[in-house]
Amino acid sequence: MELKVSSRSHGDHTIVTIVGEIDLYTAPRLQSEFTRILDESTTTLMVIDMSGVEFCDSTGMNVLLSAHKRLRERGGVLEMAGPRPAVRKILQVTGLDSVFTIHEAVPEELLAAEPQA
């Protein structure tokens, strides 16, 4: 399955939307997208919209952890929004649900800050 990654930044926050499966084959694409965002922006809050992620293996979790660590090193925060039950279960089993702040959906105040098209 293909992985689609899109991002939009507004002020000090970036919303990254992921659709598809994050696994050994798609994780490098996600890693390079996180690297690009972190290299090109001054984001201090990154919210990963996981509502379109159907599956995430340990490779994918490592990519998310790596982005979390890199953002934290520069004083930022990485949060997740809307993980499906299968992904939420992986987060709980691995204990990562205590590492990441997890929202039911992308916080309204961040969506409200988005420029209107």
UniProtKB/TrEMBL annotation:
Gene3D superfamilies: STAS domain. Residues 3-113 form the STAS domain. Pfam families: STAS. SUPFAM superfamilies: SpoIIaa-like. CDD domains: STAS_anti-anti-sigma_factors (cd07043). InterPro entries: Anti-sigma_ant, STAS_dom, STAS_dom_sf. NCBIfam families: ant_ant_sig. Belongs to the anti-sigma-factor antagonist family. This is Anti-sigma factor antagonist.
